[in-house]
Structure formats: structure tokens, C-alpha cells
Design goal:
Four copies of one chain form a homotetramer. Helix content of chain A is 27%, strand content 30%. Chain A is α/β, with parallel strands linked by helices and 285 residues long. Chain A is globular, with a radius of gyration of 22 Å. Chains A and C meet through α6 of A and α6 of C.
Chain lengths: 285, 285, 285, 285
């Protein structure tokens, strides 16, 4: 059975719901408001246990999942939530061996998910224009041992990122539509494009940009995660939830033409649906 | 540049939104209501193109992503939607090399996502009690070349699946609470447990079961995917959406005790939150 | 006890969930796929009963509620759903005696809710530019005996509607921002303004317009109604739901100035929230 | 033009989003963190204006709408949110002249909406078992001048409320299923029943109870209100929202029989839908 060793990152969960990531080190202790737990009580033992402080308060010792890492790394930027990160990985069709370009890196939360998805054999290239954020992401990924699968650049995407024919590109930035010429070049034909944008105005601007470049099969989606109180005899949603993380835009890099785009235009399709008496927006099964 | 070859599975997207998976074969044609496209026009050329029928109707030729596979494979059971499949993969912390047990297999949609996540080096073991469904899943996975990463059993989970110390278990069945003794044994300490259930009554029953076994860090969540019409100048959600696929329950396999469970009981936490003047259900950041 | 009489509108609910409004008439029958029910079996008896066709199929006989009326009147326009109609009535602060201006009338669904809210003593004035729609609304309201509380004009709002100092105005039209000069005049100081718009682009245009007129306390909201299958032992949401009816915009008619608007600008508030370390968008309790 | 006078309740809205109800009195002032505004500056003038403190901070002076009253009255119980209150009023089919029974009263938020809907000519009878809550509700309704339309009892519903043949009953209590015998008696045939419950377990228990009494046309629904930041050039949902207020259950009081209930059973309908190849839960248009 696997046991914890110095350098391992462990998730400590308190009975009050508090979740903290700690890096195990000999001669260190985990300090809480309710007493301390020496790391030596964790090292050499398996995770998946309950350990108590000297004051008797129990803590759960867990190997963190990727969702825990994303939520609990140090960050100075808006997080890409696990629900979105998971869906982005699937919609970019990432699996072991794929090559993906990300910009901007931010604190590296999504980068963790991308790296875990393409390793081993695949690679993530990620650009971040702000130096302090770039350095934080580098530290976060190093701690998790993910740097072999990631190349981080401290530069603007427009300066180029030494990649071509990548399988997927994800843009998490204010004006992704400014970079579509570059993305069109960097992405292999048929490649997967994605972006996350907080406002509807940005979504409209990106849709506009995509319609003037070689992208098709465009979709705009939103994911809402609704948590419940996990109580068998009083099951109910929590009182509050995250109402908005961002709009997700996905598209495919396609050799196309103005004529083809007109054929596939969603407006054209809306008119056709109306003509056919179908509910607007009903999916063709 | 990569080109399509016989045996490749291709996604054909029509201007009417229809999406079909086809397997390329010499001397075959793709037949639509608007004319045909010989496979020979696709073979030997890259995907990511627009090709027209002899009647002039254009079709998009794409390499299918995992989400396309899940949605478009043959199936005789309720689908696990891509939004849920993606989140399940993340919450079970799957990445290359991990070993995961699934029951039941169903038509194999989630199995595809699990296999893509753990390959190469990892493995999926999946049980399905119904013979016809088991055989369909096997055919679906074979077509996609995923059988090297998956072992399918046509049996009930309670008969055992020749696994132990797996990293994760996912139960997609009517009464998962009947199988918790087995899951407790099959899952390594600290391992990741998940389940998808359509009704609130089942969620309550599973929460009850989990509270009597060695599971903690339990959560119940729901994911809602809201699609938009991707029209820059008339951006809006579609008229209708999937309102419910299922409740997602996640937990960790933990060596615990009745006392520890009492400490971490969500009811206890609800009372404490009230006492502390916190909104019930507010997350402790 | 009240009994049904000729001219009453009755809601017939079949065991298949079908809901139909019928107007009771002597010597008439309600024809269904599963047999007929003579109106004479309903007239002279109370509603709230189960009545069967000659073939033995039971139908529920109910007095329709306003939500039933809205959903089941004849219509040639997009419906304002009951969930939205109810909320609009509350946010326009309508109660007996209030005077409200609506444009356009559409098939009269919302007009029914407005009339029921302000009667007796109040009044609804409603404009509709299209003749066929105007006439349909008139027939719908006449059947329900609501014409004493409603004045319908077949004209564009810009031609004026002979009202001033109304308590509330609701605009359900494509370009409500074109009419804000008129609304500013028609609405009494402090009066309530509302609008329903399907696209985000329209919402932005209306917000722009409101910010250049005497409106404040502006809000944009959306209501989602999630129906459940009402089965005690298998409680769960339905598979599909209406994903979007429209964005609801509310504001108050206020004597204001450019300086006051700057003070109350939501952008200014977003900056202040950030400065104060509050989550953007968190409500000040 | 109408002007404000002593005794009027006014809503003061600050540039920081704070909303406070005040009752105008001669020789009083409204005190804020940013200075004071003497009531004398409001009395004798119309609402719908911007007024500044002596320090120059502007406040919006508004006549409160019902939604503002519900949100801002003094309360010691969980609020019924305006979105739910509005929908309840519509689904109970309340309009001027109707008679409605409510239990429990709580702080009186929903009672305000019910009273405003049935006045004049209608009446609300409301029971509350806890004395302190009953007294608070009485004070809240008195301040708003609504007591002529409301009779408040400080007793348990099971002790009876001196009503019969009311048009509608609404139960906002922990175990409404305990009171269905009484409701069945108090409600006129065809009358409207509603309840609000926070947990799924309670919903199941109430559905069970309703199925053993004379109720049909049962529905379970949930309303989600999603607020947006009202900024034209950066339109987006707020970061957080209320995720759950409660499940809404509605039904009609009907003379029925076990056989009729079987015909209309939702399970029977689910089977039939499956048989007919319809999506489970699809509405029969």
C-alpha cells in the first residue's frame, strides 16, 4: 500500500469544511485554530485517514484530486472552476499525447487540468503576459511536478509561442478575437478551439471574429453547478451558488469559404427551423 | 499533415445541424436526404473540410471529439451526457495510468471517456448485467479501438470483478447502496467514489448507505448545461434545454469511525453554521 | 355552492396531461380522442370534479387559473410565460386601482394578468400595431369578460395612447429603447417600468437608452422554472425545460441628473466593490 | 401630483446599493454613514427624486414596491422571496375579492403579497403558532395599512381558523401533510392549494399525503432568479445567486376517487409516455 512521503501534497479537510493543501516536510506541523498535527504523523502512512490534533479535533487526510488542486492553489487571478476546466478538457478532445496551446496562463489552474489530461507524451504550451502571474503559475506547476509537461512563456500571444499544428487552443483573455489570425495558423486543420468569456458583449465580439476566420461548428454554452447539502433525511440544494463563471465558446478549425459559412449560418438555420415549424433552437436530434 | 484512411470514424455535420458518425470504407458512400458523398472523396485527405453532395449540399467533415462519440454512438440505454462524463472524470481524479471500476457499462458512453482519460497505462474494468447491453458496449468500444484499455464483464457487480485497490469506482445503476460493501473492498484507501442517480429518493438512500460505510468528504451536485444560439447580433439561450440528467454523488474511501463521522456530519455542520451566524450552506472558503 | 353555467370557461384535463379550455354551451359536447362529454353534464354542477366520456375515460373539470388562461388562449405570437407574467405584475407593483400601459398587446396573455391584478378600479391600456394580433387579443379578453378593465389600441406606441401619469409601463416589443421619450412622459414620477427582451444585444441597447433618460434603480433578471415529476417515491426534475423566455428589465421613473446617474452607475459600484474587497456582484444585504 | 406625507413608508436607495425602508415623521432624519437627510426634505414633495445628505451623498427616494416591502420588512423567519410570492399569487389564482387561508404567517412577507392581491373585497386569514412571530407579522401589516384585509390568528392550523369554502390555501410549515384533512374541508371544491418546502424529503411526504386526499392536478416546481449586472457594455450575470428558496407544490381540491387517481397517476403517465415513444417528462403541448 502506498504511503505518504516528504514532498507529497496533501489535502487537509476539517470538520468545519475548511480545505487546505499542505506540502509534507519532516519536522513541520500543520497549524489550525484547533491545535496542530505534526507532519510526522502523516509521513510513512497511507492517506485516506482521520488524524486528530493534540486537542482532539479530527482532520481528514486526503490525496488531493485535480478539482481540489484547482480550487486551492495560490492565485491572484480569477479561477477557472473545476466544472468548466473538466468540460474544456473534454470539448478540446484532450487525451494522452495531445498538444495544446493556452493563453493566458493565469495562476495555472486550468493548466493543471490540461497537463494532467495530455500527459505523458503530450504537451501544454501556455503564454502569460504579466510577469508576476507567470511566475506564480510556474511555482504552482513546479510544486505539483507538472513542469515536464508544460512550457510557460512570459509573453503576449501575439509575439508567437513557437508552436504549430497543435491539436487544440484555449484562450482565456479579454479580447480573444484579436488573436484569431494567429490561432488559425497555430491550430492544425480540424483542431479544437475554445474560449471562456465573462460578458455577453465579449461573446458577440468573438462570434463575429470567428465568422470572419476559418472556424465552424461553433457553440456557446454555460455550465451551472448546483451543490446540495448531502443529508439523507433533509436533501436540498445549498442556499447560494456560483451564478456565473463565464460563457464557454467552442469551435473547430476548418478550411471553409464564405459560401460554406452562409450555408451553416445559425441565422439561416433559425429561419429554416421556423419555416419547418420546428421550435427555434430545438436541436436536430 | 494527417489524412483520413479507411476505418477512421468521421463526424459529418450538415447545414441543418444533423450530426452523424460514419466509418470510412473504400467503395462506400454517405447517403443523406440531400444527395450522397462517396467515402473516396474523404479518404486520403485531411479532416476539417467542407465537402458537398452531388446535389451541392455542403457537409462538414470532422474528426469526432469524445463528446461527439458519447452523443452519437449506438445506444439502448440512457446516455451519460458529456457535461457529466467530463466532470466525473475530473472528480474521480482520472489521468494516464489510473485504474477505475465502472458498473453498469450501459452503452459504453462513459466508458469511452474513462478509457480516454486513463490510457495509456491505465485500465477500465466495467460490469454490465444485461447481455444485450454488454455486447453493444463491446462493439462500440471496439470500433473506437479502445478495447486494449477496457475489460468488460457481463455480470452483476456483486459477483465480483477481479479487481482490488482500484483508484476509483463509478456506479451507474438503480441501487448503488446495495454494493457498498464490495466497493469498500475494491477501492484503495483514499480512493475516489462516484455515482449518478436520477431521483432524490435514490440520492437519500445512497447517502444513508455511505454514512454506514467507510466514506467521507461526501458531496451531491448537479450540472446544468445551458446552450446559446451562437449568433453575434442576436445572442440568447436556446428555447429549451436538458433540465435533468442526474444527481452526481462523490465521496472518498476513508478509514473512519462512527465518532469521526459524527464530527464531520453535515447536520452537525449546519447547526454550527447557524450558531456562528453563517448562512446555512455557505461554503467555508 | 357555485355551479357552472353556460358561457363559463372550463379547463378540461385528460389523464394524458392534455389541457384544453372550453366555453360551456347548451347542446354542445367536448370531443376527445377517447369519446365525448356533453356540456350538459357539466352545467349546473360545481367544478372540481372528475367526469368520464361515454367510453369511460375520465377528465378533470376545473375552473382555469390565470396561468391556465395564459397558456391556453389562442395565440399567434410568442407567449409571456406565467412565471414571467406573475413576476412582472409584482415588479410593476400592480394592485387593485392601478393604471398600467402595455405595448405591444400580443395575443393578450400578459394583458389578462395585468387586468386581473388592477381590477376593479384600475385600468390597462394596451397598444398593438398589427391588426390581426390586436383583434385576437380583443376576442381573448372579451371571452374572459375582462374588456371593462382594458382599453386596446390598434396603433404604434409612438402615435400615443391617450394616457398620462400611469403607475406603470411594460414594453414587450423589439426596440423598446426607441420609445423611452414617450414612456418618460406617460409614466408618473416614481412610476414602474418593465420590459421583456429575448437577446442580450437588445438588453444592452435598452440599458443604454435608460441611462440617457430619467430612469434609475435598474435591474436585469431572468427567471427559470424547473418542473418536477410529482411522484413521491421517484421525485426528480423533468427531462427537459424551457431554457429561456426572455430577460426582464425593470427600472423606476425618477427625476435625475447626469451627476446622480454617475453616482449610481453600476460600473462605479463594481469598482467600489473591488476596492472594498467585496465579491463583484455581491448584493449589499 | 401626489406628494409624500407623514406616515408614508419610503424606500431609500444609496449609491452603494443599500436599500432601507423608513416611515416619514415630522422632525425626524434619515441617518446614514454618509450624512443625514431630514424627513422634512421629503414630506410635501413627490417621490421618484434624488436627495442628498448634508455631506453631498445622493439617495434615491422611492415608493416601495411589494417586492421591496417583502425584502425589507423586519423579520425573524426565513423569507418567502418575491419571485416565489409572485408566482404563488398567480398559481393560487388570487385577484380582488378572493378569500385565502395561509399558515404559518411567518414575518408576514407573503401575507403582504396575498393581501395586496385580494384587496379590496377579498380577505386573508393567516395562522401562526409562535406568539413572537405572530406579533411581528401584525406590526408589519399594520404599518403598511393592510390589517383591514387580513385576520391573524396566533394558533396552530389544527385548532381551526374559522374559515370555510375559501378559494385558496397556502401552507408554509414543516409538515403540511399533517393538515390535509383540515385543508380538504376548508377549501371549496375546485379550490387552489399551494405549499413551499425546502427539502426533497418533505416534498415526497406531501405528495404522498395529497395522493390520499381529494387533490389532483398536482405539480412540483422550482423558480430560479438569475440577476445580471445592468451594464450595457459588460452585460453578465452576477457572480453569485440564491440557489434554493424552496420547492413549490400546487394542487387542486377535487372530488375524486381512488380509481380516478390511478388514471391520472404520474407513474402511469410515465409508462404511457415511454410506450408512445415520447420523452419521459415531455409536456403534452
Amino acid at each position: 500500500m502506498e504511503v505518504l512521503k516528504p514532498g507529497d501534497i496533501v489535502l487537509m479537510v476539517g470538520a468545519d469544511g475548511r480545505r487546505r493543501l499542505i506540502t509534507l516536510q519532516e519536522n513541520q506541523s500543520y497549524h489550525t485554530h484547533r491545535g496542530t498535527i505534526p507532519h510526522s504523523e502523516l509521513i510513512g502512512k497511507p492517506p485516506g485517514r482521520v488524524v486528530s490534533t493534540q486537542l482532539g479535533y479530527p482532520y481528514l487526510v486526503l490525496e488531493p484530486g485535480v478539482a481540489d488542486l484547482i480550487r486551492n492553489i495560490k492565485r491572484i487571478t480569477q479561477i477557472v472552476y473545476p466544472k468548466d476546466a473538466a468540460y474544456i478538457v473534454m470539448r478540446l478532445n484532450l487525451s494522452a499525447g495531445k498538444r495544446v496551446l493556452e493563453a493566458g496562463t493565469g495562476s495555472g489552474g486550468l493548466t493543471i487540468a490540461l497537463a494532467k489530461a495530455v500527459m505523458p507524451g503530450g504537451h501544454v504550451v501556455s503564454c502569460e503576459v504579466r510577469g508576476d502571474i507567470h511566475r506564480l503559475a510556474a511555482r504552482n506547476l513546479e510544486k505539483l511536478g507538472l513542469l515536464p509537461y508544460v512550457t510557460l512563456f512570459n509573453r503576449d500571444l501575439s509575439e508567437g509561442c513557437d508552436v504549430q499544428y497543435v491539436d487544440a487552443v484555449f484562450l482565456d483573455m479579454k479580447e480573444p478575437w484579436q488573436h484569431l489570425d494567429y490561432v488559425e495558423e497555430a491550430l492544425r486543420p480540424g483542431g479544437f478551439f475554445g474560449s471562456l468569456l465573462p460578458t455577453t458583449n465579449q461573446v458577440s465580439a468573438l462570434l463575429d471574429g470567428l465568422s470572419q476566420h476559418n472556424f465552424m461548428d461553433i457553440s456557446v454554452e454555460e455550465l451551472l453547478l448546483r451543490p446540495y447539502k448531502p443529508v439523507a433525511e433533509r436533501l436540498r440544494p445549498t442556499d447560494r451558488m456560483i451564478a456565473h463563471s463565464g460563457y464557454l465558446i467552442f469551435a473547430r478549425r476548418v478550411e471553409t469559404s464564405d459560401e460554406a459559412r452562409r450555408w451553416f449560418s445559425p441565422i439561416r438555420r433559425m429561419h429554416r427551423d421556423k419555416y419547418l415549424g420546428k421550435g427555434e433552437g430545438e436541436e436536430d436530434a
